[in-house]
Design brief:
Layout: E1 9-17, E2 28-37, E3 40-48, H1 57-63, H2 67-70, H3 76-87, E4 91-94, H4 97-111, E5 121-123, H5 124-131, H6 140-146, H7 157-177, H8 183-186
Parallel strand pairs: 1-4, 4-5
Antiparallel strand pairs: 1-2, 2-3
Helix pairs in contact: 5-7, 6-7
Length: 189
Amino acid sequence: MSKDIEEIEFTIFDTETTGLDPLSGDRIVELAAVRFRGEKRLAVFESLVNSEYPVSLGAFNVNKISKEMLVSAPKPQEIIPKFLNFTQGSSLCCYNADFDMGFLYNELRILGLVQKQNIPVVDLLKVARVVLPGLERYALWYVAENLGIKVKQEHRALSDVELTLGVFYKLKELSKARGGSGLEVFNAE
């Protein structure tokens, strides 16, 4: 893999879900991603997902994704393979990777798809804790605000990906300003 963070392809992705726990049956209802290298966007992926699992009231109150919105959405067996193809050859990146990767791995398990070992994943929550030590909290919106990004978090997959992308760029910039290459903080090597 390249030693220059500007040459690595990343795919920042986000999920919206029916609830908080994939092990209790919660599923992905929206999946979005932006693939990029350096400052150049290469592609965008976005889809609702009809998992035929009810969206909890708590999840609806956050993401506003209703049962009616999902009726004509593609099923996971159609979307998850397309997403995997979209991310092929890139380092996955998300904010709070345990959450999103937990849901992605659960979908792979349900669909009987082979889970790739050693998928490179950058957790921007962990990066933020290293680059911005001592913040009062590390919610995505709070970190973005502290980095000067004045965009409201919408809790929809693509808008959250866009916000996360802005955080990625700012954290990379801060890391480089401190004399690093970015790779040591982003653990993308």
